[in-house]
Write a structure and sequence with these properties.
Elements: E1 4-8, H1 12-24, E2 28-32, H2 35-44, E3 49-52, H3 61-71, E4 77-81, H4 86-95, E5 100-103, H5 108-119
Parallel strand pairs: 1-2, 1-3, 3-4, 4-5
Helix pairs in contact: 2-3
Length: 120
């Protein structure tokens, strides 16, 4: 059974790249281009892992993260972002308890390894 990864980012190029990398590894990939779309899709089909951008219009990744956690405590969530500041990492990993914090740009191998670690 293929593991399902949801990629949430308002940048279509990022979504396409991550989707391509994960699909070549045999993962099924769900995509969302906004926080609202992410929450809507998760309510119908639960992914095994969520890769979530922070900087998105309307509803940022922090808000989406909290909403997912309220309903689904067991879905691992990694923040996937260009924000490489210690304060953001601390908020993501230690305050909100994200499962990982991956900064862009990231390498293909790094992304795959980190997704595998969250699934295990």
């Amino acid at each position: 059974m293929n593991k399902k990864i949801m990629v949430v980012d308002d940048e279509p190029d990022t979504v396409d790249l991550v989707k391509l990398v994960l699909e070549t590894e045999g993962y099924e990939v769900m995509t969302a281009y906004s926080g609202r779309e992410c929450l809507e899709k998760i309510s119908h089909e639960k992914p095994d892992v969520v890769l979530l951008d922070i900087m998105m219009p309307e509803m940022d990744g922090w808000e989406v993260f909290k909403k997912i956690r309220e309903r689904y405590e067991d879905i691992p969530i990694a923040m996937l972002t260009v924000r490489n500041q210690d304060i953001d990492k601390m908020l993501g990993l230690h305050v909100l308890k994200a499962d990982d914090y991956i900064t862009k740009p990231f390498g293909r191998k790094e992304l795959i390894e980190r997704v595998k670690k969250m699934i295990e």
